[in-house]
Protein: Stage V sporulation protein AE
Organism: Desulfoscipio gibsoniae DSM 7213
Amino acid sequence: METYFWAFVVGGLICVIGQLLMDVGKLTPAHTISSMVVAGAVLAGLGLYEPLIDFAGAGATIPITSFGNSLVHGAMAEAEQTGLVGIITGIFEVTSAGISAAIIFGFMAALLVRPKG
């Protein structure tokens, strides 16, 4: 039960930060999303995002900050194996499945659901 609590709290805090960026910082949704991805990447680069995932589970892996973590994690892992070129290929290798799934499921939803208008 404690795991669910911390996942809810951490995920909620990440969402609150995003909402504050839009409301108080007057950032557009696109700027907010970009900022959250960069924040996740910076935390991953500093080695702080993995402990957050260990602590909060889905509370840290579901929000958009996790995408930044995935980018850095993939780039660093590939760079260790193949060098400088691995930085670019690692980003695409780790994130391609999630992006592809989002595109496919979004397309399928668009075919099956008719918006009211």
About this structure: The chain has a mean pLDDT of 90. The radius of gyration is 16 Å. Helices lie at 2-23, 29-45, 49-56, 58-61, 65-82, 84-112.
